[in-house]
Design goal:
By secondary structure, the protein is of the alpha+beta class. The longest helix has 23 residues. Helices cover 37% and strands 18% of the residues. 44% of the residues are buried. It is built from 20 helices and 18 strands. The strands form 4 sheets. Strands 1, 2, 3, 4, 5 and 6 form a 6-stranded antiparallel β-sheet that branches.
Length: 577
């Protein structure tokens, strides 16, 4: 298995694209940089995306930094399928096995044509009050949905960051094909579960065919129809570039969902909302096509469930990305190179100009001296923001407000002269930053307390002692959706970075990339991690595994018995996702 470079390594080598890149056209290009002079990286799926402009065109260059099963095989199959279709919905791209040279080794890249327009998230941030353009966009997405169904294709992660919108909603294109399904890849299985705010709650790694996108299209279509009539719901639901009316919590239990209950009460959308709620509660395989949903056909039968004995309590926040406390520098440092949601209360705002006389704003969550985490808003980001810091009162207008920021956690920047080190997220799009209430901030941060920091450290320390030191290279296969999963992901990465000493029983039996191993990982994260009993089981599993695995490896009979037991468990998990 290939160990890919880290964000820091890519940033260092791509400062000289002429020597780092092998493609004759790309190596003559200019790479987009931050105002610190470092290559500007955007995060998506398994790859970091850099922008390179040549004399004749602009490209998105995707450099892989996370493991993906059979990456080259997947991209070859996807490329062949899309070239045969020559569809306007997809961009031209080229998978180059000999793409970029890092520390003397060569790694693959994807060279992709630059998409025009804005992401769906950016478009909606600006146009959600324009019913005409929303209707045009909705019709374009319906055409896209039908096209994918008719050609047995699935993008795998339909969400605002992966759909480009142009011409006032008349034109849409898809980007980021890491998790795409084509029939030739059926045997390989899924590599990701998609953005949680746009995915069916029962989607698992076993969900892998051309029907992957149905739920996403239904969710977005219904949200757009509602916004055409009720644009005020955008603000009331705290919609953003990562959530359009609905969030993952709403799909888990529509009965406890504010937005579902609002729609149940609106005659025009009541039946649609009821049908959508039924779909959320039904098996993944029962999701109808978007066309069927619109025409009320093939809607699953309502799930009959007993009324709760006691009133249901509030559900924990289900984030699409790891939620990090902006005051926790050590925790943020562990997520350098990851797409995360940073939440914090602003204590300081610094404004200034670069040497090129372009304005910038630094938003701090603590004193800037020493080690701290901040938001960097360069001139490009300032231009995009509808709500900017007050230039007349730069230190007062934002201070005391709580914000949620989604973006790539950049490597630490150290200034030895003034003795400070900063971690930062750069704002380049308006939908990255959202001002939230203190109550909402604490609700989201509460998801980080499902496992106490001390407990986290105990578990990780146990793994370290049994498996050796942690590798600085991260190999996440997907963004964890909660701090619990972040801890488990870290443990998993610790193991996968040291495969010779792998102590996972399922990994030892099936292999690290087996669909069965992935099915058990998904079951662990979705079914076990949310409960105290489940976390206790997980902790015991990781404690015992280092002693169990060597015994299994020495005893073929025992290995056969364990495999049969795991086979049974995998089958059971598949029937009870």
């Amino acid at each position: 298995m290939m160990n890919y470079p880290t964000l820091e390594q890519y940033n260092e080598t791509l400062q000289n694209p002429q020597t780092a890149l092998i493609d004759p056209e790309l190596k003559k290009g200019t790479i987009a940089t931050t105002y610190l002079g470092l290559p500007l990286a955007l995060c998506g799926g398994f790859a970091l995306t850099y922008t390179i402009t040549t004399a004749s065109a602009r490209y998105a260059v995707r450099c892989f930094h996370k493991q993906s099963n059979a990456l080259e095989q997947r991209y070859k199959a996807i490329s062949q399928r899309l070239k045969s279709l020559r569809s306007r919905y997809f961009l031209d791209f080229e998978f180059q096995t000999q793409g970029v040279r890092v520390n003397g080794k060569v790694f693959p890249i994807v060279k992709m044509a630059w998409a025009s327009g804005k992401t769906l998230g950016e478009f909606l941030e600006q146009r959600y009050r324009n019913p005409m353009e929303l209707q045009q966009l909705r019709l374009s997405l319906r055409s896209l949905s039908s096209y994918l169904e008719n050609h047995h294709l699935a993008h795998g992660d339909i969400q605002p960051g992966n759909v480009m919108v142009a011409n006032g909603g008349l034109s849409v294109q898809l980007i980021d094909y890491d998790g795409m399904y084509v029939d030739d890849l059926k045997a390989l299985g899924s590599t990701e579960l998609g953005h949680r705010n746009f995915q069916h709650p029962k989607r698992t790694s076993n969900s892998w065919d051309y029907r992957l996108d149905r739920f996403s299209f239904i969710s977005i279509d219904l949200a757009l129809r509602v916004l055409e009539e009720c644009p005020e719901l955008w603000g009331k639901t705290q919609s953003s570039g990562d959530a359009i009316l609905f969030k993952a919590n709403d799909f888990i239990d529509p009965r406890q969902s504010d937005i579902f209950n609002k729609l149940f009460a609106l005659p025009k959308f009541s039946q649609d909302a009821k049908n959508f709620a039924t779909i959320c509660q039904s098996p993944f395989e029962k999701i109808p096509t978007l066309e069927e949903f619109i025409t009320y056909k093939n809607i699953p039968q309502p799930v009959i469930s007993k009324p709760p004995i006691a009133p249901l309590g509030p559900r924990p926040y289900i984030p699409p990305f790891p939620v990090l406390d902006a005051t926790n520098y050590a925790l943020c440092l562990q997520h350098v190179g990851d797409r995360i949601e940073l939440i914090g209360k602003i204590v300081e705002v610094k404004t200034g100009s670069t040497r090129h006389r372009k304005p910038y704003v630094f938003v701090n969550f603590g004193p800037w001296q020493g080690k701290s985490v901040r938001i960097s808003i360069w001139s490009e980001g300032l231009s995009a923001l509808a709500q900017k810091p007050d230039a007349q009162k730069p230190n007062r207008s934002w201070i005391g407000k709580w914000v949620s920021v989604v973006g790539l956690m950049e490597p630490p920047y150290e200034n030895r002269k003034y003795q400070y080190t900063h971690l930062a997220i750069s704002i380049t799009q308006a939908n990255q930053l959202c001002i939230i209430s203190e109550l909402e901030a604490k609700f989201r941060l509460s998801s980080t307390s499902m496992i106490s920091p001390n407990k986290n450290r105990e578990i990780l320390e146990g793994i370290r002692k049994k498996s050796g030191t942690l590798s600085p290279s991260k190999t996440f296969t997907q963004a964890p959706s909660s701090p619990n999963q972040a801890v488990l992901q870290t443990m998993k990465n610790t193991q996968s970075s040291n495969t010779k000493n792998d102590c996972f029983i399922a990994t030892a039996v099936y292999g690290p990339d087996s669909p069965k191993t992935n099915a058990l990982r998904t079951w662990r994260d979705r079914a076990l991690a949310p409960s105290k009993l489940g976390r206790t089981f997980i902790s015991c599993y990781y404690t015992l595994s280092p002693w169990v695995v060597p015994v299994i490896e020495r005893n073929e009979r025992l290995a056969s018995i364990v495999m049969r037991m795991l086979d049974w468990l995998v089958t059971w998990v598949g029937k009870h996702p």
